[in-house]
Amino acid sequence: MRNAVNDGVWSGTWVARRLGVELEGDERLTDLLGMALRRNPKRAHLLVSKVLGKHVPQSPAVVHGHGVRLGHRVRALLGDAEAARAVVLGYAETATGLGHSVADGLALAPYLHSTRRPVTGVTPAGGFEESHSHATSHLLLPEDPALLAGDGPLVLVDDEFSTGNTVLNTIRELHAHHPRDRYVVVALVDMRSAEDAAQLDRFAAGIGARVDLVAAASGSVRLPEGVLEKGQALVAEHERADAAPGPVPGGEVRRVELGWPAGLPDGGRHGFTPAHRARLEAALPGMAARIADALPDGSRRVLVLGFEELMYAPLRLAAELERTVPAEVRYSTTTRSPVLAVDDPGYAIRTRLAFPAHDDPADGPGERYAYNVAGAGFDTVVAVVDSAADTPALHAPDGLLARLAAHAPHVLLAVVPAHEPHLPERPAMLPEPLRGPAFSSYAPDEVGWLLQDLSSVSLEAPTEEREEAVQNGGAHYAESLPVEYQPSERYQALFHAALDTSADRIARAVGVVTETVLTERGGTPVLVSLARAGTPVGVLMRRWAEQRYGVELPHYAVSIVRGRGIDANALRWLAAHHDPRDVVFVDGWTGKGAITRELAAAIEEFERAEGVTGFDPEIAVLADPGSCVRTYGTRDDFLIPSACLNSTVSGLISRTVLRADLVGPDDFHGAKFYRELADADVSVAFLDAISARFPEVRDEVDAAVKELLAEDRTPTWEGWRAVERISEEYGIHDVNLVKPGVGETTRVLLRRVPWKILAKAGAGADLDHVRLLAEQRGVPVEEVDDLPYTCVGLIHPKYTRGATGADGRAVNV
């Protein structure tokens, strides 16, 4: 049966002739499906997918590719905004890998598959019955119960959509607890009858939801009368001959260590997020290389054999192996499904290996099967199981490994750690990040905001009132928001001129800081920008990595508040979804380094309180004029146009808010989305203008990074010393009221009460917008010869409405 899949005979012919079963519909159906007989009293025939990787060994690239293409179609159907709110749900056991592959194609959504393996301590979020299956009960065991609690689209994935009853049962169960407006059903083949389709339409109308269907091919199965009885008779007739070819002397069995990343789920049984996918993508080449190194010399035909619900991890390992070794690599998995084997080119299941269950299943002991493995000419089989299934039964004389070794000269065992769900003691579940366009004007994949939406709350106060309250100790600056500055036509023209002038310079700085992070941090860094000035920089760094290397770095924005620290709930969420060691904090620029110190103190406190370690408080910035950090694009103090405006260059998001009556102990910090300013929004235009220059500056970036990595980049904190000197020299006596650098000076003019601006003598166009803002607000600009920054903004000390400066160096109190 060596060439069973390629004999040129349709692998459904045997069943079709003997039972009179016919496939009708798309011409592609016979390319996708064969047929076999079930050893099951509920149904006679089994449609056997040739591209699923369950019963028929297939190229892993073909298997994964079919799912990914279906996922692309779902994303196109939903649009990115809805896709980012979706959850993908696959069905155990047959479609766990297909559902995961669909989630890969969708890219923006987390994935969960049903399971028949209960896990102690994990409360089911739901369950349903699959009426025609040999094993009916499905459990839903997400690690985070909030995964299924949202109202975004639910994408349900099965290999075959036959009657639609399983989907109806699922939607009915979940909709009763968490109603949503939209469901998408995905299958390799849609084989429903007209009545089945009408039933789904009636059901959708009854619950007031839209249900779409996406399938690779569609058709129907025509079943003659009495087909079940005929099928049962055929099974009984051929049962005695249903055995694998005679065994050869036992092959060797060896173990290969994969180096599976710590904490990375083995699949979607408890949930698998886009962040998990990024970690897996980064680790796959190394794991596949370990398997390749363990293959015997001269291996020509290799099977990677997964294990029941564990389909996706073996599939991705097989695909990476196929890409890197000269051998022919095929992929399939073991199964619970009892099917008759008939060694005939016109039959889909040619051989059957039976062995005892080896994962201590909840439904007790029983037979398990590997189809089309014996007699297929594999010289090496790589069996991939999870650690829960690496039991004595697996290694027993009648176990799976022995059965494989009887038909292949070499067997490698690779064990993936079974994911142990983290069961938090905290009663509150943190929500998923907010994403555009529902929150911010950025694309949903560019940044996830670990914030809560306070758009409906009135938070703005006149600048003068805010300044007086803050300086008198009556309020913290993060408890309210300044009224958004609306730029004049003249100011907008300055912004666009500055952008055009500085785009190359910023692109170079983006490239330098990104390359430095990729070189020094390795793997797939998780960018966490400090909202909101850091967010455009984080998006640009993500774009650089994607454009140059095809790597999609996870990117989130979190709140940090001077005097209050970083949002601990955001850190908690990050630690639950990523390895803290992968997190790289990102900001726009440094001033005197207050936020650098704030972050270091906050991380230390978080680790002490939570027992979570690994976060590195080092900040990567575009510009470091204060010499406060090691990772930067430049140490020049120059105009970064994203500092010129407020929300209209930062995704229409306000600066962050932390107020006790709005932000509880289990909430993310808040922010507002100024949808009403969409006509003035230049956020995406700013990003596009910079990223368009990336190809032009690549060579300069490479040269600059080479030099930078060889330099001593130890922070000197000269900016802090300069601020202390200025604070005393001008009689302010409060370093928090001295804001050094172009970016910080611009902030002073846009949202504080400025007293005066110190400008470096001879500073040119970088300060055009500062001079204009100062003119509009009646603030003097004083040129200073020995200023270490291009400019410094001084906030009015001890401000009360009507206060005035006496001699420009002190304040009347």
Automatic annotation (TrEMBL):
GO terms for molecular function: glycosyltransferase activity. Residues 440-690 form the Cysteine protease StiP N-terminal domain. Residues 266-402 form the TRSP domain. It comes from the Bacteria. Keywords: Glycosyltransferase, Transferase. Residues 717-796 form the PELOTA RNA-binding domain. Coiled coil: none annotated. Residues 32-219 form the Orotate phosphoribosyltransferase-like domain. Transmembrane segments: none annotated. The keyword Iron-sulfur does not apply. InterPro entries: PELOTA_dom, PRTase-like, PRTase_2, PRTase_dom, StiP_N, TRSP_dom. This is Phosphoribosyltransferase. It comes from Streptomyces bauhiniae.
